[in-house]
Each structure stands twice: as C-alpha cells, then as structure tokens.
Automatic annotation (TrEMBL):
Belongs to the zinc-associated anti-sigma factor (ZAS) superfamily. Anti-sigma-W factor family. GO terms for molecular function: sigma factor antagonist activity. It comes from the Bacteria. Residues 91-227 form the Anti-sigma K factor RskA C-terminal domain. It is found in: Cell membrane; Membrane. The chain crosses the membrane at residues 87-107. One of its GO terms (cellular component) is plasma membrane. This is Anti-sigma-W factor RsiW. PANTHER family: ANTI-SIGMA-K FACTOR RSKA (PTHR37461:SF1). Residues 15-39 form the Putative zinc-finger domain. It is a single-pass membrane protein.
Length: 235
C-alpha cells in the first residue's frame, strides 16, 4: 500500500492488531470517519479483543499461525468487499486466537503454580534470625516485641509481634524498619488494638537478607518511605 492508496473494510483486522504502518493506520482512520459499518464492527471486535488475558509472557509463535487460524475456520482469504464475511472472518479469527492464548496462559500459570507449591513443600520454613525489641520511648516503658526472620525456600518472611504499645488512632500507624549498613528499609506498617498488641508479616523477595537491627516508629500516617515519627522500639 502506498501513501495515496485507499483502504477498504477488510483492513479492520490489520488495524485492530496493529499490523500496519503509520500511513496505513492513518488511511484506515480516514476511512473510519465515513464508514458507519466499520465503526460498529470495530467496536464489537475491540470488545472481544480486550477480553484476552493480560500480562502474558511473550512466546515465539509459528510463522504460519495466521494461515492455521484461517484454515481452522474454513477461510482461505478474507473477502475484500462483502461485509457479512468480513465480520465472520474477523470475529472467528479473534475468538480462535483468544482460545489458543487463553489455553496456553492457563496451562503455563498452572504449571508455574504447581512447581512453586512443590518447591515450598520440599523446603520447610525455618527461623534464621530472631530480634528482641525493647522500649525506646519513656512514654511506653512496657513496650516490647519479637521479630523473626523466616526463610521458606528462596523467599524470606519478616514476622513481628508487638505488645505494650499505645493504641493507634486515626491515620496514625506503627512502622517497622530493617536496618543494614546504616540504611533503613521500610518493612510495612501496622495498627495496634486497645490492648496494645500488633502483628506484622512482611514478605521480602531477595536472594539473601542481611539485617543488622530492627526498629519501630510511630508515624502520623502509613505512607512514609523514611522515618518521620519518634522511635518507640528497637533491637
């Protein structure tokens, strides 16, 4: 197709899937402005197209995939002018591709989930470090806590149990920080009930977890990326 060559209604699939040049796309969009039939068909095709699974990994597909799909629905070449067959070709192609993609995605996700579950069963959870937290605020002298670093396979989980703290009100929250080499890393926030008890469980996705100490601060809200409030507990 050259710059001045007009497009017809059969170009809708190429436009929908993005298999066209900028000039072809612009030419078809000019066609869309005056073709009510294409406008309606495009809306329907987009509704089907948008139901396909998201966030799929790219895989190499056969070079003749389009021909395979065409043969499977009994069409050798998409008609150029007959509107009823254009819709049949477009809808059938998108649905067949959707079924193929959906089947592959579900199979891959199921295989990955089974593999991950099997790996966890083969590797029981183990406490690799324990931190005792003591009060660092004179207004809460009875505050104390324990933090456990649990390794499960290639994943780590930080479990923190606190008591003797003042109950949180409004947006206020306690925030846990992991300290290593002078740097503080946010480990999540928690609220404390009227008995002064709070629990936090936080997953850390790293190959190796190095922690020098753990601290807890009282923050005006749970949105901080660095400590802003006063320290109430520390190891």
């Amino acid at each position: 197709m050259n710059e001045h060559e007009p497009v017809d209604c059969s170009f809708i699939i190429n436009y929908l899937t993005g298999e066209c040049t900028e000039l072809e796309r612009a030419s078809y969009e000019r066609h869309l402005r005056t073709c009510v039939s294409c406008q309606e068909e495009l809306r329907e095709l987009q509704a089907v197209w948008q139901t396909l699974p998201f966030h799929m990994e790219e895989v190499e597909v056969p070079a003749d995939l389009k021909q395979q799909v065409m043969r499977s629905i009994g069409v050798t070449e998409p008609p150029k002018r007959k509107r009823s067959f254009t819709w049949l070709y477009g809808t059938a192609a998108v649905i067949v591709l959707g079924i193929m993609a959906g089947t592959w995605w579900n199979y891959s996700e199921s295989a990955r989930s089974k593999e991950a579950a099997s790996a966890l069963l083969r590797n029981p959870a183990e406490v690799v470090n324990t931190f005792t937290l003591k009060s660092a605020d004179s207004s809460m002298p009875s505050a104390l806590g324990t933090a456990w670093i649990v390794q499960h396979g290639e994943a780590y989980n930080v479990v923190v149990n606190l008591s003797g703290l003042k109950e949180t009100q409004g947006d206020w929250a306690y925030q846990v920080w992991l300290n290593h080499n002078g740097k503080k890393y946010n480990c999540g926030t928690l609220r404390v009930d009227d008995k002064g008890i709070g629990v936090l469980s936080y997953d850390v996705r790293v190959k190796e977890l190095h922690i020098d100490s753990i601290g807890v601060t009282l923050e005006p809200d749970p949105n901080g990326t660095q400590p802003r409030g006063k320290k109430v507990l520390g190891s």
